[in-house]
Amino acid sequence: MTFHHHIQQFTLLLFSVTLFGLNGMAQSQPSCEPGEFGHNQRYGQFIAVHGISIYVERYGKGEPLLLLHGNGGSIANFSCQIPYFEQKYEVIAVDSRAQGKSTDKGDSLSFEMMADDFSELLDSLHLDSCYVLGWSDGGINGLMLAMRHPEKVKKLAITGANLWPDSTAIRPADYKWMASAYKELGQQQQTPEIKNTRKLIRLDLTEPHITKDQLQKIKCPTLVIGGDRDIILTEHTVCIARSIPDSYLWILPGSGHATLIDHKDEFNEVVGNFLGSGL
Questions:
Q1: Distance between CA atoms of 108 and 234, rounded to whole angstroms?
Q2: HEC profile of the chain
């Protein structure tokens, strides 16, 4: 298989697996149109953070709500959430390092780096704290931000996050697919696009490494979400919730990894009630 002219299709496939898992791709499709989210010049800006430019779009007014997308994704992945939450919050949607419009030519990438990016981003926006909603890798970023910069996170809602990178957390078929894709890309000509895609796959193959004891550092109210057909195993999601002192658990029946898309109305309502409550 040649990849020079198929790299965009491959990246889309990578994100499809991130969204739905190998066994859910045929039966689950996004139901929200991205519209201008992710490339809205009226609301977008680049902000210098740790030597790179992070792309941000800001919508609405109110208390700040930071949205963190999954591996290979972008701001557009929250097209189901931005119109809902901008009615009450200042939504700060971010393209994470090396994804979307936030370019990063470096070879290294870690969840710690990204959490520190978001902390500095909040400083640049003159925000001392915010609510955080993270999906998949964005959920891991949310956990990292709450552990490394606890003063920055008022409340945290995560869906489809994992603590470590193996088949006790991730469905074995999906983990095997990522390993195979990483190896195959390594055999291709290393264009900038392929190198960046390998960097993103490597991140999920080798990280994170969060212990249950480390989760005890999270002191903010936390809502832990997963689908009962998620690529993240349900027992792993339960483990995360049990390990965070002030946490709540919500497993969506009949849902894959894309809880916030496939069950967008219920998802937005439950997360909105959590963020807006006095908990």
A1: 30
A2: CCCCCCHHHHHHHHHHHHHHCCCCCCCCCCCCCCCCCCCCCCCEEEEEECCEEEEEEEECCCEEEEEECCCCCCHHHHCCCHHHHCCCEEEEEECCCCECCECCCCCCCCHHHHHHHHHHHHHHCCCCCEEEEEECHHHHHHHHHHHHCHHHEEEEEEECCCCCCCCCCECHHHHHHHHHHHHHHHCCCCCHHHHHHHHHHHHHHHCCCCCHHHHCCCCCCEEEEEECCCCECHHHHHHHHHHCCCEEEEEECCCCCCHHHHCHHHHHHHHHHHHHCCC
Q: Which two tokens stand for residue 28?
A: 């689950």
Domain ranges of the chain: 7-25+57-276
Q: Could you report the per-residue pLDDT of 48-92, keeping only the tens digit for each?
A: 999 999 999 999 999 999 999 999 999 999 999 999 999 999 999
pLDDT of residue 246: 84
pLDDT mean over 168-172: 97
Write the class of the CATH domain 7-25+57-276: alpha beta
CA distance 146 to 243: 14
Distance CA 27, CA 160 (A): 18
Confidence grade of residue 259 (pLDDT, cut at 50, 70, 90): very high
The count of C-alpha atoms lying within 13 angstroms of the C-alpha of 117, restricted to the half-sphere facing its C-beta, is 29
